[in-house]
Specification:
The complex is a heterodimer. Helix content of chain A is 68%, strand content 0%. By secondary structure, chain A is mainly α. Chain A is globular, with a radius of gyration of 25 Å. Chain A starts with 17 loop residues before the first helix and ends in a 6-residue tail after the last helix. Chain B is mainly alpha-helical. Helices cover 71% and strands 0% of the residues of chain B. Chain B has 16 helices and no strands. Chain B starts with a helix and ends with a helix. The chains are: A mainly alpha, B mainly alpha. Chains A and B meet through helix 1, helix 2, helix 4, helix 5 and helix 6 of A and helix 1, helix 3, helix 6, helix 7 and helix 8 of B.
Chain lengths: 302, 314
């Protein structure tokens, strides 16, 4: 990289590299004012009783107590937990299995990849609306299966409060697994071919090689993918808005929607700030250990 | 240290590794075409591919049917009588609230949002990345670290402070405001992308230009820019699809008359009043998805590189 020798004794320190500093002003402003300043601002104001406008009258943890007493927030958190857990598991498993299939030196690999990845290019709004239509009880999958003769068949996630979150999960997996497959495939391609040869010579069955040798070797890829999926899960918003608008009732609410609704519709800013601070904490719980493992130990990953 | 993230995510180049094919015995491999393994592998892949294609097919089929056919028929059946009326209606007549001029308004809003946002965000981020890679100054790495960590912060945390900043600047609710927001949130990933790319270029070039007396901007425009077209294309793909698909920022930072296509689409389809016209809804959905889909199918492998780099964006 750059090894520009720096004359540290020069008097005009601030003028050195002036152009680079000027060019970096947008970055510095974004980092300091928006990312750092904005985050601190929101956290500070989550301890106030701001309603329509932000006001600095502190009420301690009131907003948080109100937040955790609100049924809608509890449902949002439960939904996020169920959705998050299942979409992590399913996207990792499906993504890996698809990547393993794609890695069998198959023909038409490009075609298959193009097909599996195209949903990722679409907006969550588009995905949500398509699946709203496919899961429509009157015309969609349910009515098709019924018309085939299984008249008691019931698959109506978007109108059934108990299972609505699975309807959203199906759409999310349709959109996201292609990306996971691509990341996993890249990981598989990075594995030395000799490992496979050795395993074959030793007569180890293929599935065993995957489970016992390849997956442990891909630890880094798995963790990176996990972090990518997880930080996307916390932000899930558009998909729910398009597919169910949080309904039926409040059965498919998620935290990001809670924040938006309280900030911009219910005009209860304090609640919105408290809820978004909780989102921040959730992300921090995911990111900090990862960042520590990844960069903290001073150990370079292979 | 942050190289790790990016290098790692830039890997997905799915070219078959040449060494793999040429190593080992050469010549035509004796293969049984219908081995059990092949049936399982291809069978699964074909089923999966059908599952992925199904929604696209249903969208297109539904949008070409008339409402009576939808009411009696099955969503997987191909249209008996193809009609383009739903498309015309979705484009020019569908209603959101009081306006009944269709999705075309949202489309042009999205164009007016996406074009300047893409250009400005890439221009800003490429210069940032260049400064970080070649002209490092004290504190630069610190700001950059904040920037990259910031990419993981949920947008909801920063939305309201941005509303205040934009209001103070007098651009809240306007297209200008939204362009600024897209530039801000595109910055972490794009800066990372450009920084790593520029850092990977041979340093001698930079040094030679310095010796010849070229300054910051001269080197950027005369040397770095012409050498970096591929990464600019990757950044463009990333930004065009990302900004076109955005919903949250469009809702929060613009007034209804400037709503981007995604927001307008959602308002058309999920409006409570009126009879649901599923064919029009699906036509509108395809129209909204068309731009990123075209970008995706045209750009192919570059798109994969872009999203692999941009996946951190979530």
């Amino acid at each position: 990289m750059t090894a520009l020798t720096r004359g540290s004794g020069r008097p005009n320190q601030w003028l050195r590299n002036l152009n680079a500093k000027i060019a970096s002003i947008p970055m510095i402003l974004t980092a300091v004012v928006i990312f750092l300043g904005g985050t601190i601002w929101t956290v500070v104001y989550s301890f106030t009783n701001s309603k329509l406008l932000p006001r600095l009258s502190f009420v301690g943890l009131d907003q948080y107590e109100r937040l955790w007493a609100a049924p809608r927030w509890i449902i949002s958190i439960q939904n996020l937990a169920v959705y998050g857990f299942l979409s992590l598991i399913f996207s990792l498993v499906i993504g890996f299995v698809l990547a393993a299939l794609m890695d069998q030196k198959i023909r038409f690999e490009n075609t298959f990849r193009t097909i599996m990845l195209y949903p990722f290019a679409l907006s969550f709004i588009v995905t949500g609306l398509v699946w709203q239509w496919l899961l429509n009880p009157q015309f969609g999958i349910q009515s098709i299966v019924r018309s085939l003769g299984w008249t008691s068949f019931s698959f109506d996630p978007l109108y059934d409060a108990d299972i609505v979150i699975y309807g959203i999960l199906i759409a999310a997996l349709w959109q996201g697994t292609g990306l996971v497959m691509c990341l996993m495939l890249a990981g598989l391609r990075g594995i030395d071919e000799d490992i496979w040869k050795a395993a074959r010579v030793d007569g180890i069955p293929m599935w065993k090689t995957y489970v016992l040798i390849i997956i442990p070797m891909m630890r880094g890829v798995f963790i990176t993918t996990l972090v990518i999926i997880a930080s996307g899960i916390v932000k899930v918003y558009d998909l729910v808005v398009a597919q169910t608008s949080g309904g039926p009732g409040i059965a498919s609410e998620v935290p990001a929607k809670y924040v938006y609704d309280y900030m911009f519709q219910a005009q209860n800013l304090g609640q919105g700030f408290a809820a978004s601070t909780m989102m921040l904490i959730t992300v921090a719980i995911i990111i900090v250990p990862w960042a520590y493992l990844e960069f903290g130990g001073g150990r370079k990953r292979a | 240290m942050l190289n790790l993230v990016a290098n790692n995510s830039m890997v997905p180049e799915h070219d078959a590794v040449p060494g793999r094919i040429t190593a080992g015995p050469s010549g035509r491999k004796p293969r049984r075409k219908l081995s059990r393994r092949n049936i399982i592998v291809y069978g699964t892949l074909i089923v999966v591919a059908l599952y992925y294609l199904l929604p696209l097919y249903v969208m297109i089929a539904t949008s070409l049917k008339g409402m009576p056919e939808i009411r009696v028929g099955n969503i997987f059946a191909p249209p008996l009588e193809i009609t383009f009326e739903p498309w015309v209606k979705a484009w020019a007549e569908a209603c959101t609230g009081l306006n009944c001029d269709g999705l075309s308004r949202g489309f042009w809003n999205s164009v007016r949002i996406t074009v300047p946002s893409v250009i400005i965000s890439i221009a800003v981020a490429s210069v940032n990345g260049y400064a970080l890679a070649n002209w490092r100054f004290k504190g630069a790495e610190l700001f950059f670290t904040i920037l990259v960590v910031g990419a993981f912060i949920p947008y909801q945390v920063m939305i309201y402070p941005i509303v205040i900043v934009l209001r103070e600047m007098g651009v809240y609710g306007t297209l200008t405001g939204l362009v600024i927001v897209h530039t801000i949130f595109g910055m972490p990933i794009l800066t990372l992308l450009f920084r790593n790319y520029f850092a990977g270029l041979p340093e001698e070039l930079f040094k030679a230009a310095r010796v010849d007396g070229a300054g910051f901007w001269t080197i950027y425009f005369k040397i770095m820019l012409p050498m970096s077209l591929p990464i600019f294309v990757v950044a463009m793909i990333l930004q065009v699809t990302g900004i076109w698909n955005d919903f949250l920022f469009g809702v929060v930072f613009t007034r209804p008359e400037y709503y981007p296509m995604t927001v307008q689409l959602n308002n058309i389809v999920n409006s409570v009043q009126g009879v649901k016209e599923y064919n029009v809804n699906m036509a509108a959905t395809i129209l909204t998805g068309a731009v990123p889909l075209v970008v995706y199918f045209v750009s192919g492998r570059l798109f994969v590189r872009g999203i692999a780099a941009g996946a951190v964006k979530g």
